[in-house]
């Protein structure tokens, strides 16, 4: 049985997992539309409203709606609402849709630190610059609470990794000395909320970042599937601490069709791996062996060790071919 038949929902990251720069990644649309289980889109990107995200997903061929989208901006507003009195003034650093969510939650949205906001809420938006960041820093230095939609330092784009919200948050933190409360992944709240939306008892969290998607799913006690189409690649997986290790690893979305045994780390593709001192030696393989099979073979050994290996030493023609593609 495939992984899709042993789970009752997909909790999907977007950037680097479902799409890149708004363009669907290979096989994603076909797999989601044909898998027979509900999908909920769980994104740390706070620059778009749930309705906008649902519309964009529709444009690439996915049948969904805003009720199946959970954003970190929603999570940040919910966190602030739990901490602050109704009607409190808040300064939003981010997209207009973030301000709308705050108003809908009963907050008074202000634009200046001079208006003495009770909190600063920061989310990703490409228009954010010095003026907004400085206004937030001044407000926080005057005593405002600090919330961040997420702390992703990088944002995958079709041209490569761009500056993420966490990098912008770091500018305020370095100015104020104040660390924000982060609402998005890897906190478990977004995952548990997403599962509840579709009544899921056996969800599968799918993502491309170990420190957000996989860590969050693990913290929420869910099965996790890591795809190598975004930020975290082979070498980061090999060095991952226990809390960042996924249950399953796939080259891309199409490998959700594999069985659990095939997608788990373990010897496969004719490869064999073992520790030799501080290094892992990778041997074997054949003409049909793939890079991802070599990776799963190495991961089983690496994750069983007490520390990450110093080097991966390929000792066969097929091992060398596989390892040469790793990043």
From TrEMBL:
Molecular function (Gene Ontology), one example: phosphatase activity
GO cellular component labels: cytoplasm
Keyword line: Hydrolase
EC identifiers of the protein: 3.-.-.-
Record has Oxidoreductase as a keyword: no
UniProt key word Transcription regulation: no
Class in the EC hierarchy, top level: hydrolase
Family matches, as NCBIfam families: HAD-SF-IIA (TIGR01460)
PANTHER family, alphabetized: 4-NITROPHENYLPHOSPHATASE-RELATED (PTHR19288), D-GLYCEROL 3-PHOSPHATE PHOSPHATASE (PTHR19288:SF95)
Protein's recorded name: HAD superfamily sugar phosphatase
Gene from which this protein is expressed: yutF
